[in-house]
Amino acid sequence: MNRSLIILFSALVLATAVFAGSYFVSQRASVMCRTASADDLSWLREEFHLNDADMARVRQLHESYMPQCAEMCAKIAVKKSELQAALNDSTNVTAAAKTKLIELGELRAQCQAQMLQHFITVSQAMPPEQGRRYLAEMKRLTLGFHEEIEQSMSPAAGHEQQH
Amino acid sequence: MKGNMNFNDTKLSALLRESRVSPSLLPRFQQNVWRRIENAEAPAKSKSWIDSLVALILRPKFAFATVAVLMLAGILIGTHEGSQIARQDAQTRYLAAVAPSSLR
To answer: Is position B67 within any domain?
Structure first.
C-alpha cells in the first residue's frame, strides 16, 4: 500500500512536470516566433486580415502620421513641463498654472482629434467591414479609458457620497 | 552363478528397505496439505483500487501513451496561449505607436 502510494505520487509529479515543461516551452517558442518578425503594424495585418495591398496603403498612412504625432507629443511634453514649473512655484493653483492646464488640455484635445482623424483615414483604407471593426476597436482602446474613469466618478457610481 | 546373484539382490533389496528410516509426518500434515491445495485453487484476493491503478500506470504502453497525451496537450495549450500573448503584445505595440499613453 505504502509502495503503491509512492509510485502514484511520483507518477503524478512526473505527469505534472511533463505537461508544465511542454506547456512553457511551446508558449515561449510561440511568443518568440510571432514577435521576432513583428513590427508596429503586425497587429493590424493579423487582427483585420489585411492583404499586401491593404497593408501598403495602411503603412503609407501610418508613416505620414508618425511625424505629426511626434510633433504633437513634443508640444505636450513642453506644456507639461511648463505646468510643472508653474505648480512648483507656489502652493496654490495660480492663474498661470490654470492657463497652462487649459493649454495642455487644448493640446491634448488637438492630439486626440488628429489621432481620431488618422484612425478614420486608416479605416477607410481597409475593406469596409474590417474598417468599421478597426475604428470601433480603436475608439474603445483610446477613448474608452476616459469613459470608464468618468463613469466611475459620476453620481450614479456613488462618487459624490464620498465627499 | 546367475541364480546366486539374483538371490543376493533380493536379499540386498530387503536389507536396504529395512535400513531406510521413514520420517514421521508432522501433526495434521494431511489436513495442512489439503488446506494449501484449497487456498491455491481459490480465486486471488481482490486488490485495492490504488494497487490496480499502480499496476496500470506501470504498464509501459499506458505510461508512454500518457506521456504522449500530456506532451501534446501541453504543446497545444502552450502554443495557443503563446499566440494570445503575442497578439496582445502586438496590439500594445501598435497602440504605443499611434496613441501615446498620455492620451489614453
So the answer is: yes
Give me the tens of pLDDT residue by residue for chain B, a chain 104 residues long.
555 666 678 888 888 877 777 777 778 888 888 988 887 876 666 678 888 888 888 899 999 999 999 999 999 999 999 999 999 999 998 998 888 765 55
CB-CB contact of A58 with A41 (8 Å): yes
Among the partner-chain residues B57, B71, B86, the one whose CB lies closest to the CB of A34 is B86
Read off the pTM: 0.65
| Contact between A26 and B74 using a beta-carbon 8 Å cutoff | yes
Of B67, B87, B98, the CB nearest to A69: B98
What are the residues of chain B with a beta carbon less than 8 Å away from any beta carbon of chain A?
Answer: 48, 50-51, 53-54, 57-58, 66-67, 70-79, 81-83, 85-87, 89-91, 93-95, 97-100, 102-104
Q: A42-152 has which fold?
A: Four Helix Bundle (Hemerythrin (Met), subunit A) (1.20.120)
Higher pLDDT, B38 or A126: A126
Task: State the DSSP string of A35-86.
Answer: HHT--TTHHHHHHTT--HHHHHHHHHHHHHHHHHHHHHHHHHHHHHHHHHHH
Give this complex's ipTM.
0.76
Burial class (CB in 10 A: 0-12, 13-18, 19+), A73: middle
Overall average pLDDT of the A40-61 stretch: 91
With contact defined as beta carbons under 8 Å apart, do A111 and B104 qualify? Answer: no
Q: Which conformational region is residue B48 in: left (phi greater than 0), alpha (psi within -120 to 50 degrees), or beta?
A: beta
Looking at chain A, how many residues does it have? Answer: 163
Q: Which residue has the cell 493640446?
A: A107
Number of domains, chain B: 1
